[in-house]
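queue> holo job accepted (guanosine-5'-triphosphate)
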Amino acid sequence: MIHKKSITGIILAGGKSSRMGTDKGTLLLNEKTFIQHIIDAMNPLVNHIVIVSDNPNHDDFEIERIEDVIKDAGPLAGLYSGLQQSKTDYNLVVSCDVPLITTKILKQIIENYKEGLDVIQLESNQKTMPLIALYNKTCKQTIKQLLDKGERRVRFAVSQLKTKTIMLDDNLSSALININTKEEFDAITN
Ligand SMILES: Nc1nc2c(ncn2[C@@H]2O[C@H](COP(=O)(O)OP(=O)(O)OP(=O)(O)O)[C@@H](O)[C@H]2O)c(=O)[nH]1
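queue> job finished
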């Protein structure tokens, strides 16, 4: 397994949260922000964690915040910004809107790394999840070229890389739930 010293945790917390209407990263679940849930899940597995976000409210977390190097271009640009500024070979990338994610699931991703792979991502309910994934730092060149051509789809970018997809057991899939709307938030808080 890759040593935790070689892994940076990258939390994507930029964007517009337009479907939620309020910043998703600072929503509270069990009195803890979504971002803090991700930090706690990642912490045992990585050397250090950064948040990629242009939102100064995210400075309240006791971890480094780095800014997008390509603005207003969505998660793929956030991913690139994190990889571009990372000092380690491997990067565990998690979006801030999956607050039920666990260390156990993230550990499975890291355990599945094999030499030569660019990306290890999860799949659940026939849906791949490229924003809960391990990225080799070398991916950044391909991602930059795609962004320069106007590409915005993370799944397309991942399809251009050497990617391994891990099928998650059905009984764990509820931990991957992606919270984008107020209805989805209400469903996990009530
Ligand atoms: N750093 C960074 N993160 C982003 C950017 N856009 C989206 N994200 C993050 O990527 C993840 C997935 O984002 P989406 O749900 O597709 O977009 P969103 O802007 O958060 O929300 P919507 O406006 O409702 O689509 C979330 O964790 C966002 O915080 C961006 O431009 N920069």
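queue> The helical segments are 34-42, 75-85, 103-111, 140-148, 154-159, 182-189.
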